[in-house]
Amino acid sequence: MSGPSDDQLGFAPDYDSPVPYMQRTRDYYAAIGYTTPYRWAHYVDAPFQPLKKPLAQSRVTIVTTAAQYDPTKGDQGPGAAYNGSAKFYQVYDGDTSQQHDLRISHIGYDRKHTTATDSGTWFPLPQLIKAKAAGRIGEVAPRFFGAPTNRSHRVTIDTDAPDILARCLADQVDVAVIVPNCPVCHQTSALVARHLEANGIATVVMGCAKDIVEHAAAPRFLFSDFPLGNSAGKPHEVESQALTLELALRLLESAPGARTTMQSPLRWSEDASWKLDYNNISQMSPEELARRRAEFDKQKEIARGNRAA
């Protein structure tokens, strides 16, 4: 006699769980011919900096993996194909009192399920300014910071994270909200968070790749189960973006210690089948894999030239 069905028990389908980005990425690159598996950053403990003062008295900055728009670097608009020319390789900063055009064409966000039409999903400065106006935080720091998405752990740990720390200390930052987009961005963000926390600055990573951030042991992590590129909320839904930032702020206040993850209650859609698509080789033909290998090699050459320049 068979037991009750999933429908009778109210079970969700097995694929409706956080996307396994590390395994998907390993399988994908092996399938296009890069057989040496990438070593994802892995720690079992983490530094932890409690808030030194209430958020209503704290100076808060943003660290983003989005790039400043440069019209000389090809198509960076909504839905643009991966654009290696738009990558950046040094930390940059921007004046938070000004508007900025930051884009994500240079990284591997989920191009099938989101079109990158609303920068509020990856750069929550407008919501942070509203939080300041409401008295939720004390100040928006004078600058935000761009963190290069670097596959080299050593470059992130030895160069980029210390650079961001130095700029934060110069601006007397108390708290950093860190917003990644692609898989490697999430690793970068966790490594930056760890460095800042070890040096006295409380952080929260807002992201969509749960396995990567937790593998690298970020001190605090707000997980939104959304397609990559939407770490700060749903596109064109201001309420979603406001709630996502508020949840991150609550996590800063309530985390009992290092490696605390909070999951947003928001769902991307009732149909969770979008989780089956990102870099899933079981859904790609040999011809598609060959096309992707050729495109990857092309973009790698572009990036190599940009780095040398």
Concise synopsis of the structure shown:
It is built from eight helices and ten strands. With 309 residues, the protein is of the alpha/beta class.
Question: Overview of this structure, please?
Answer:
By secondary structure, the chain is α/β, with parallel strands linked by helices. It has a domain at 55-263. 34% of the residues lie in helices and 13% in strands. It is built from eight helices and ten strands. The chain has helices at 6-9, 21-31, 125-133, 153-170, 183-198, 210-215, 238-254, 286-308; strands at 59-64, 67-68, 92-95, 102-103, 139-140, 143-146, 175-179, 202-207, 220-223, 260-263. The strands form two sheets. Strands 1, 3, 5, 6, 7, 8, 9 and 10 form an eight-stranded mixed sheet that branches. Strand 7 (175-179), helix 5 and strand 8 (202-207) form a beta-alpha-beta unit. Helix 4 crosses helix 5. This is Glycine reductase. It comes from Bradyrhizobium lablabi.
Topology:
Blueprint: H1 6-9, H2 21-31, E1 59-64, E2 67-68, E3 92-95, E4 102-103, H3 125-133, E5 139-140, E6 143-146, H4 153-170, E7 175-179, H5 183-198, E8 202-207, H6 210-215, E9 220-223, H7 238-254, E10 260-263, H8 286-308
Helix pairs in contact: 4-5
Total of helices: 8
* Class per helix and strand makeup: alpha/beta
* Helix-residue proportion: 25-40%
Q: In total, how many beta strands?
A: 10
Average of pLDDT: 94
- The string of secondary-structure elements, in order, is HHEEEEHEEHEHEHEHEH
